[in-house]
Design goal:
Length: about 140
Amino acid sequence: MKEYDLAALAATTDKELAAAITSPDGRRLVDAAFDQLPQMFRPEEAGGLSVVVHWVLSGDRLYEAVIENNRCMVSRVPCHEPQLIMTMASITFIRMVSGRDNPMKLFMMGKIKVKGDLGLAASIPRIFDVSQFADINRS
């Protein structure tokens, strides 16, 4: 697999990011971004949440984040009933988790579709520290 600096890639143009995502290694690139959610998770902000979030991304990508016991676990094989389903383009996901785009703005622009617990959806930016995205990529 080609090595990507995800934070640097998130800062590129939509055309460059789309080319990377649709490349032969594109699925692994999006997987790598999703796999960072546990390191970005802020249990002190989650307030004891026990929830399941499904992320439906373009390119037939479906991911699951389970938040319970002050931990966040992710899977590419969802097996729990979600309280929240967030649907978006893979580009939007990478821009959101990298902190390049504001999730509320993306939602208001219709780039993120939400089904389920809207209060939980509004808390996602608070419980995941996107400033950690670049640091994780450098380790």
